[in-house]
Amino acid sequence: MKTTKAAILVAIAFAAGMSYAKLRTDLPEPPNWDAFLTRSGALQVRNGHTQGMCVSSNAVYMTLQSGIYKFDWYGRLLARVEAPKHQGDICWHAGRLYTAVDIPDPEEPARGRIFVYDENLSLLKTTSFEKPADGIVCMDGALIVGLGPVKDPATGEPKLRGNWFGKFDPETLEPLCEPFIVDHGWDVCAGVQNLATDGERLYMNVYTPTDNYPCFFVMDGNFNVLESHVFGWRHGFDIVAGGADGAVRLIYALTVNWMRPSHDNRDPSPPQALMRYAEIGGGKISDVTRYIIF
Hints:
By secondary structure, the chain is mostly beta strands. The chain has one helix at about 5-15; strands at about 35, 50-55, 60-65, 65-70, 75-80, 85-95, 95-100, 110-120, 125-130, 135-140, 140-150, 160-170, 180-185, 190-195, 200-205, 215-220, 225-230, 235-240, 250-255, 270-280, 285, 290-294. The protein has one domain: Neuraminidase (6 Propeller), CATH 2.120.10. Strand 4 (about 65-70) and strand 5 (about 75-80) form a beta hairpin. The chain is globular, with a radius of gyration of 18 Å. About 40% of the residues are buried.
């Protein structure tokens, strides 16, 4: 049987420690299951829309295209910092925040970045690499980072299926393996949007050709697809505690009023992030959000 380069790279990735992990015990549980909006004016229109989000026991963190934000669990702004464009996803691990960054300059030889912040949004360290970075999560002791869609060498356009991934040490930020391809079985038109984990499974959403198309995937630690769902192009999500009978709950963000003209048609309305909750169980995703708190 012929062994492809992609298969070899995936084998290297598995040897580097991509295996089944134990269920996380540090998943935060929301104070309630009410939807909430970030306060008006908290998000700056110059920073663009929400790209990713993650949660800790006492805070909700978000990346916008050029900003990092920290909120409490009721949408009150706690901290904000400007960040280089184009920020992607964000994850929380061992008291630190990790963001995946794609520098939008085709002439830049090292477009990918990982930025590391403390819980107060002070920058601790960075690293750079060739491929652009998009989704990010820490699972089984390694940062798993989306590195863009697979490109057709003849046209430079994404192929029908597949995304590049890499693994990095969360302390040194050194790569743990060569970039490898994951073919999840469905068409994509861009990179990974968000990644999250409960410690045992990997949850991912990607950009797809149409809205009514599977774009949310549940995978095991070896990237085998267990479930696929139509769940829209969300602007960040993370796993939370509170699911019962084997169900998994998540919090997700939707950007409201981004680039929408205001009532006087002069200035854009301030964007806000609407936070909602969903549950994965019985082969489907169900919304479990209660009423909105303003």
